[in-house]
Amino acid sequence: MAPIPTALIGLSANSTWKWSGSAHLPYLLSAHGRSRYTIVAVLNSSKESSLAAIKHFNLPAETRAYGSPAELAADKDIRLVVCSTRVDRHYETVLASAQAGKDVYVEWPLAQDTKHAKELADAARNGGGRTMIGLQGRVSPLTLQLKKLIEDGRIGKVLSTEFHGAGATNGRDSVLRGTEYFLQHSVGGNIVTIYGGHAFDLIQTVLGEATEIKSQPQLQRPISTVRDPATDTVTDNIKSDVPDLFIVTARLKESPTVVRDASLLFRFRRSPPFPGELALVWSIAGEKGEIRVTNQAFSMLHMVSAGIVVEVHDFETDKVEKVEFDLEESWAGDATAPPPSKIVGLLYDRFATEGQYPTWEDAVKRHEQIDDFAAGWVA
């Protein structure tokens, strides 16, 4: 199969997070990635910015530079469009390509709100192209290992689950310059949608869909400082309208592996954990045992495997077993690639081989659940 002609939206040398350059590009430029995809175009806010990115990342000179989503959509040589811009720019940059029938891969969240997410999904459905959403946790070796433990009956039927995460942005009351949008609800990219959305999707991938979702959001620290990452100095203060603590309760749907009315408790806070405590603790209680997933310093399971520990407590023997899972076993690309690129690469591999991957229809369902997280929320 010939490599898929691909356009990148948001590949910028100046972006603070540089997700496209750190997660997507290492895969796409690897020998394995190049066997399945070929970068033929870049779209940024201007043609000049796209040219600068092409030069900065040493892409081939024939790579096309675009400054307009309409021009990109009109390029008939492009089959796949990949978008990893700021969330509130997803809609405006990919709508034309979806309408034109191109395949489109957008990082999560799909759009700044459910309304725009539904409009994108409708446009893609009418256009006829394939879609993929960047819910990478669904294909993570951790997720697959946890599903296997549950399906193999290691802990019996699931009775309940609790997820506790702590730590996001640059601190409890500060953000890095260039990421102020994390504190702006209208942008749609914040700890509730990004951290909460990824984690809640991963939980449901392992245990099944959640229902009867109720939430208690709170904004504990409305004012945050903005810090310059180069000098570590405060450059501004900003008022937030995004919760920095949210607690969610729900029920898991009954299934062959989950009892009726199994409870789900989800708590996430922007503040780092108390000194000495873990940044992430996820427990899955079963009839015969309990699974515990922990990470000392990082609260996002979908992005990285280093530091994650999985343990199973067998109630009958009262012994705790550490369960190994290996990202490398699922990874066919460059072994030296950063972990985020390997997880993203697993999605790319599934898309290229027409395997199972999350779509924009899946994204709309998660957007609707996120709405439940913040139902009635007023800053």
Can you list the strand order of the major beta sheet? 9-12-13-7-14-15-16-17
Q: Give the class-level CATH name of the largest domain.
A: Alpha Beta
Which blocks of ≥5 consecutive residues have pLDDT under 50?
none
Would you tell me which CATH topology of the largest domain applies? Answer: Dihydrodipicolinate Reductase, domain 2
CATH homology-level superfamily of the largest domain: Dihydrodipicolinate Reductase, domain 2
Major β-sheet profile: 8 strands, mixed
**Percent in strands:** 25-35%
Q: Classify the secondary structure makeup into a structural class.
A: alpha/beta
Rg (CA only): 21 Å
CA-CA gap between termini: 52 Å
Number of helix segments? 11
SSE order, as H and E? EHHEHEHEHEHEHEEHEEEEEEEEEHHH
Number of strands: 17
Which architecture of the largest domain does the CATH hierarchy give at level 2?
2-Layer Sandwich
How many discrete structural domains? 2
Protein name: Gfo/Idh/MocA-like oxidoreductase N-terminal domain-containing protein
GO molecular function: nucleotide binding
Summary tags:
single chain, 379 residues, alpha/beta, Rossmann fold, Dihydrodipicolinate Reductase, domain 2, 2 domains, 6-stranded parallel sheet, globular, Gal80p-like_C, nucleotide binding, NAD(P)-bd_dom_sf
Write a concise synopsis of the structure shown.
With 379 residues, the chain is of the alpha/beta class.
Characterization of this structure:
The chain has helices at residues 19-28, 31-34, 47-56, 69-74, 90-99, 114-127, 141-151, 191-207, 327-330, 339-352, 360-373, and strands at residues 4-9, 37-43, 64-66, 80-83, 103-107, 131-134, 158-166, 174-176, 210-218, 223-228, 233-239, 245-252, 258-269, 280-286, 289-295, 308-314, 319-323. The protein has 379 residues and is α/β, with parallel strands linked by helices. It has two domains: 4-129, NAD(P)-binding Rossmann-like Domain (Rossmann fold), CATH 3.40.50.720; 140-323 and 366-373, 2-Layer Sandwich (Dihydrodipicolinate Reductase, domain 2), CATH 3.30.360.10. The chain has an eight-stranded mixed beta sheet, covered by helices on one side. A six-stranded parallel beta sheet has the order 3-2-1-4-5-6, with helices on both faces. A hairpin with a 5-residue loop joins β12 (245-252) and β13. α6 (114-127) packs antiparallel against α11. The mean pLDDT is 93. GO terms for molecular function: nucleotide binding.
